[in-house]
Design goal:
The complex is a heterodimer of chains A (355) and B (332). By secondary structure, chain A is α/β, with parallel strands linked by helices. Chain A has helices at 74-81, 104-110, 131-142, 147-160, 177-189, 207-224, 235-241, 259-265, 269-277, 318-322, 349-354; strands spanning 29-41, 47-59, 63-67, 89-94, 97-98, 114-117, 195-199, 227-232, 244-249, 252-258, 328-329, 335-336. In chain A, helix 3 packs across helix 4 (147-160). The longest helix of chain B is centred in the middle third of the chain and has 18 residues, at 187-204. Chain B has two domains: 5-91 and 171-260 and 274-331, Rossmann fold (3-Layer(aba) Sandwich); 102-170, no CATH class. The model of chain B has no long low-confidence stretch (mean pLDDT 92). Classes of the chains: A alpha/beta (355), B alpha/beta (332).
Chain lengths: 355, 332
C-alpha cells in the first residue's frame, strides 16, 4: 500500500455553531490540566487512586508523551481528558473548552475538538458498520457539512491515511490490523480536532506496521498542525514521535520535560530503570551489568506515604520513605520528583557522560 | 555438538474446508543444549505454528504434512499420543504469551507446579510440594511459601509468568519453547524475566527457542536466529551476523523500522526523521506469491524474483538467506 498524497481540505462549514478554530495562537497552550485526580471506588470501600494529582500543559502543535508501566494511570489520564472517565477533582481545559464540569450537549460538541485513537483496532470499530460510514459517523453525529461535503471529507481522509476510497464499502473484518488502525486514525481526524489523544496506538501492531503508523501519525501532525497526547509504554516510540514527555508512576508524574532534555539528561531513578530495561537490536554487550530495579509497582489502593518509587529504588533513603518528593524544577522546563535529583549519578554510561 | 531438537523440511497444512494451504513450507531449525534460538518475524509468518507442531499441539484441521521433528533423536511427528504425553512438560515444555489465560484459575500455584512432577516423575504429594517451593524460589517469587497457596488471580502478570516458567522448568526439560513470553509484561519485568531465563539456562543447559517479533529481545537473548516470512525461514545465522549484516531485504527492513532509543548526547542530535518502512503487509494464507514470497514488498525485486523461487544462498558456513539478491545485500 502506498500512502496517498495528503491534501488539506477547506474547513467544513459547521451547522454546530461556534466551533471557530483557535489555531491563530500557535504558541499558546492548548491543554491545561491542573491537579487531576481520578479515583475508582471498590465494593469493599477501598479506593483505587489511578490518577492522583497530575498537572501539565501542552502547547499547540506539541506532541506530549506519557510513559509508564501498566497501572501507572497513563491510560486513565487519557480517558479523563476525553471524559470517558470522570475525575474526582482537578481541572482540565482544551482550547476554549473547560472540560471538568461539562455535561450533555456542550460536552458532545467539545468532542469535535478532542478525538481519540485506541490501542486495539479490532475492538474499537463497530463490526457492522462499513468503513466509510465508521469514518463519516462523527460528522453525521455532529451535523457537520452537507451529505456531499461529508463524503468528500471521508474520501480525503482515506487518502490521507493511505487507504483507497473504494475501501469505504468494506467491513472492518476485511481489513488487516494496520489498516484498521488507519481507519481509526481517519475517524479521529475527520472532525478536524485540535487535540488527538492516542492511547498506545501501535502497541498491538507488528513492528513493520508500527513503523508505518508512527510515520503516518507524525506526518499528519505536521500537515494538520495537530496536538497529540501520546500514551505509550515504549520509550523508543515516545522519543520518535513526541516533543515532550512525562514519566508516570503509580498515578503521578515523576519526571517531565522536552524529549531531548529527558533522554539526554534524565534525573529520576525510575526513568533510568525504564531506559536501562529498553532492549535494542544494536546492543552486542548483553553480558554487561544492567541497571535493574527489583519487584513491581505497589498497589494504587494504598500507595506508599513518601516517594511512591522508594520501595523499588536502589538509592532510597529514610527521607524517601517518610516525605513525598514534589515535582520541582531542574533547569529549563525539566521537572523531577526526587529528593536526591541533584546528587545521584546516573547508572547509565550514556547519561553519565552527557551529565 | 549434536542438536537436541532438529526440525527438517517441516510442512504444516491447514484444511479450511474449501482449500488446503501450507502454513509452514519447508522450515529447518536446530536447537543446541545451553543455547537460545531466536525465531523472529511478523504475525502470520508461522512462528507459533512451528512451535505448536513441535509440541504436538497443532489445532484442529492443521497437520504435519511433511518433514521431521527430532527431539533427542526421537521422531515427534509420528510419536504415539501416550509417548507424546510423557515427553510434553517433561523433556520439552512451552511458555505461552498469555500468563493470564494459560494458568488454571481454579488450582493453586502449588497444585499447578506439583502436578507436573507428580505425573512425570512419580513423586509423592509431599515431594512434589518441596519441588514446587524450590521452583518458586528459582524463579525469584517473593515469599514463596506463602505463594504456594495463592490462586492465579491473586498474582500480578509478572508473577504469573514466573509461575508459568516454574511449571515449564519443574521437570528440567531439555528444550523450552518460549512463545513471546514477555510481550504482555512491562519492560522492567521483561528485563527480570529474561535475566532469569538466562541464569536458569546456564544452570541447566536447557535449549531455548525464543519466539518474538522484537529484534531487541533477539539481541538480548539469542545465540542463533531464524527469520520467518510467510511460512518460510528466510534467513538464518549467528545473532551478530543477522543483526549487523542482514542479507535478506526483509531482515534489513525489520531492522530499519525498529525505533532505537537514543540516550545522552545522541538524544540531542536532530531527529533522524521517519522510520524505515516495509510497504504493505504479510500476505494472507493462500495468497502467498509463487516465487519469492517477499517480492511484492521488496525494493530489490526484479523479474527473476517474481518468476523463480529464490535459492538458499550461503554467505558463510553459518549464515544463509533465501534471496536472489542476498550477496549484493550483505556487501552493499
Amino acid at each position: 500500500m502506498t500512502p496517498a498524497p495528503a491534501t488539506t481540505a477547506a474547513p467544513l462549514t459547521g451547522t454546530a455553531a461556534d466551533t471557530g478554530s483557535q489555531r491563530d495562537t500557535p504558541h499558546g497552550n492548548l491543554v491545561d490540566v491542573q491537579d487531576l485526580k481520578v479515583h475508582f471506588p471498590l465494593a469493599n470501600g477501598n479506593v483505587v487512586r489511578a490518577v492522583d494529582g497530575v498537572t501539565f500543559k501542552v502547547a499547540r502543535g506539541a506532541s506530549f508523551g506519557i510513559v509508564g508501566e501498566s497501572g501507572s494511570g497513563k491510560s486513565t489520564t487519557a480517558q479523563a481528558l476525553t471524559r470517558l472517565v470522570d475525575p474526582v477533582s482537578g481541572s482540565m481545559s482544551v482550547g476554549r473548552h473547560s472540560l471538568s464540569g461539562l455535561t450533555g450537549e456542550p460536552l458532545r460538541l467539545a468532542r469535535k475538538d478532542i478525538q481519540m485513537v485506541f490501542q486495539d483496532p479490532f475492538s474499537s470499530l463497530n463490526p457492522r458498520l462499513r468503513a466509510g460510514k465508521a469514518v463519516r459517523e462523527p460528522l453525521d453525529l455532529m451535523g457537520i457539512g452537507t451529505r456531499e461535503e461529508r463524503e468528500a471529507r471521508v474520501d480525503e481522509l482515506f487518502r490521507a491515511v493511505g487507504l483507497h476510497p473504494d475501501a469505504k464499502r468494506l467491513f472492518p473484518h476485511q481489513f488487516s490490523g494496520g489498516q484498521r488502525q488507519r481507519l481509526c486514525i481517519a475517524r479521529a481526524m475527520v472532525t478536524e480536532p485540535q487535540l488527538v489523544v492516542c492511547d498506545e496506538p501501535v502497541s498491538a501492531l507488528d513492528v513493520a506496521i508500527q513503523a508505518q503508523i508512527l510515520n503516518l501519525l507524525k506526518r499528519l501532525r505536521q500537515e494538520k498542525q495537530l496536538t497529540y497526547i501520546f500514551i505509550s509504554h515504549d520509550l523508543a516510540v515516545v522519543q520518535n514521535i513526541c516533543t515532550h514527555v512525562a514519566v508516570m508512576y503509580l498515578g503521578q508524574f515523576v519526571e517531565t520535560g522536552p524529549v531531548e532534555e529527558i533522554f539526554a539528561n534524565a534525573k529520576h531513578p525510575y526513568t533510568w530503570s525504564l531506559m536501562a530495561a529498553a532492549l535494542s537490536p544494536d546492543d552486542r554487550d548483553r553480558g554487561r551489568e544492567r541497571f535493574t530495579v527489583t519487584g513491581e509497582p505497589p498497589s494504587p489502593i494504598n500507595p506508599p506515604k513518601g516517594c511512591r518509587f522508594a520501595g523499588r529504588c536502589p538509592f532510597a533513603q529514610d527521607r524517601c520513605r517518610a516525605e513525598k518528593p514534589e515535582l520541582r524544577k531542574m533547569g529549563k522546563d525539566h521537572k523531577v520528583a526526587c529528593h536526591f535529583a541533584e546528587t545521584l549519578t546516573p547508572p547509565l554510561p550514556e547519561l553519565a557522560l552527557a551529565g | 555438538m549434536d542438536p537436541i531438537l532438529s526440525v527438517r523440511d517441516l510442512v504444516v497444512e491447514v484444511d479450511t474446508g474449501s482449500a488446503v494451504h501450507k502454513v509452514i513450507d519447508g522450515v529447518s531449525l536446530d536447537l543446541y543444549p545451553g543455547k537460545t534460538l531466536g525465531v523472529v518475524g511478523e504475525s502470520g509468518c508461522g512462528k507459533s505454528m512451528t512451535a505448536l507442531a513441535t509440541m504436538g499441539l497443532l489445532p484442529d484441521r492443521f497437520r504435519v504434512a511433511g518433514g521431521s521433528i527430532q527431539l533427542a533423536g526421537e521422531e515427534m511427528t509420528t510419536v504415539k499420543p501416550s509417548r507424546l504425553r510423557q515427553l510434553r512438560g517433561n523433556a520439552i515444555s512451552m511458555i505461552f504469551q498469555e500468563p493470564m489465560t494459560s494458568l488454571n484459575p481454579l488450582l493453586t500455584v502449588e497444585r499447578q507446579i506439583a502436578e507436573v512432577v507428580e505425573l512425570h516423575q512419580q513423586k509423592s504429594r509431599a515431594e512434589a510440594r518441596d519441588i514446587a517451593l524450590e521452583m518458586l524460589r528459582a524463579v525469584q517469587i517473593p515469599s514463596p511459601e506463602a505463594r504456594l497457596a495463592a490462586y492465579p488471580h491473586e498474582l500480578s502478570g509478572g508473577m504469573r509468568q514466573r509461575v508459568m516458567i516454574a511449571i515449564a522448568l519443574a521437570c528440567r526439560p531439555k528444550v523450552i519453547i518460549a512463545d513471546e513470553p514477555t510481550t504482555a509484561l512491562d519492560v522492567t519485568v521483561q528485563a527480570q524475566i529474561f535475566r532469569l531465563l538466562r541464569d536458569l539456562q546456564m544452570d541447566t543447559e536447557t535449549a531455548i527457542m525464543l519466539i518474538t517479533h522484537d529484534l531487541g529481545a533477539v539481541a538480548e537473548m539469542a545465540d542463533e536466529v531464524a527469520v520467518f516470512y510467510a511460512g518460510r525461514s528466510i534467513e538464518t545465522g549467528p545473532v551478530a551476523q543477522i543483526l549487523d549484516t542482514p542479507a535478506h531485504p526483509y531482515t534489513r527492513g525489520l531492522m530499519s523500522c525498529t525505533p532505537r532509543l537514543k540516550l545522552g548526547a545522541q538524544a540531542r542530535e536532530p531527529d533522524a526523521g521517519a522510520l524505515g518502512e516495509i510497504p504493505g503487509m504479510v500476505p494472507p494464507l493462500g495468497r502467498f506469491p509463487k516465487a519469492c514470497r517477499f517480492a511484492p514488498r521488496c525494493a530489490l525485486a526484479d523479474a527473476r524474483c517474481t518468476h523463480d523461487a529464490p535459492p538458499k544462498v550461503a554467505l558463510n558456513d553459518a549464515h544463509a538467506a533465501l534471496c536472489w539478491h542476498a550477496k549484493e545485500e550483505a556487501f552493499a
